[in-house]
TrEMBL record:
GO terms for molecular function: histone H3 reader activity; transcription corepressor activity; zinc ion binding. Keywords: Bromodomain, Chromatin regulator, Chromosome, Coiled coil, Metal-binding, Nucleus, Transcription, Transcription regulation, Zinc, Zinc-finger. GO terms for biological process: regulation of signal transduction; regulation of transcription elongation by RNA polymerase II. InterPro entries: MYND_ZMYND11_ZMYD8 (IPR057053), ZMY11 (IPR047269), Znf_MYND (IPR002893). Residues 130-164 form the MYND-type domain. This is MYND-type domain-containing protein. Transmembrane segments: none annotated. It is found in: Chromosome; Nucleus. Its main location: nucleus. It comes from Caenorhabditis tropicalis. Gene3D superfamilies: 6.10.140.2220. GO terms for cellular component: chromosome; nucleus. Residues 84-123 form a coiled coil.
Amino acid sequence: MTEPSISSIKPLTRQASIKMEIEAENRIVDNTVVDNRTKRVLAELQKHWINEYHNSREKALVELTERLHQEFLSDQQKIRTELLQQFKEELEQTRNDLDVKYRDQLKNENSKLTEKHRRELSDIKKKQWCCQCENEAIYHCCWNTAYCSVECQQNHWQLHRKTCRRRKNNSSN
Ligand SMILES: [Zn+2]
Ligand SMILES: [Zn+2]
């Protein structure tokens, strides 16, 4: 078996290489044409995509802004409601505190007044009153009989003489 000599391969290789070069050149020409067409299509596609991108970005921004605005409004409403609720609770609490305070004060005041009234009543009960004119008495005659003045005692004497115990006691003594 004899191997093919290099000289026998060379022409074939050279031929093939020339053919390939031509094909490659043709392809380059085609590619150039294709490239230009592709570039135009790509450029248009790019333009279209950029437009689409801008449009959808614009739309997304508008939607986002709207959503944020709605969220802001609802947050604000929520905060306002919460503040109002808190304010109501504090007001209620303050009113309850004041009610308790005033009720206590009133109770205190009432018991003080009751005590004062009781004491005054007691003092009044201890006092004696003139049998003639019903002023406070300072002269005591006998049981349940007193006078504010000698004058009253003398004026009352006509009536009192029948029941005066001092006189009876004095007379019996
Ligand atoms: Zn009197
Ligand atoms: Zn008397």
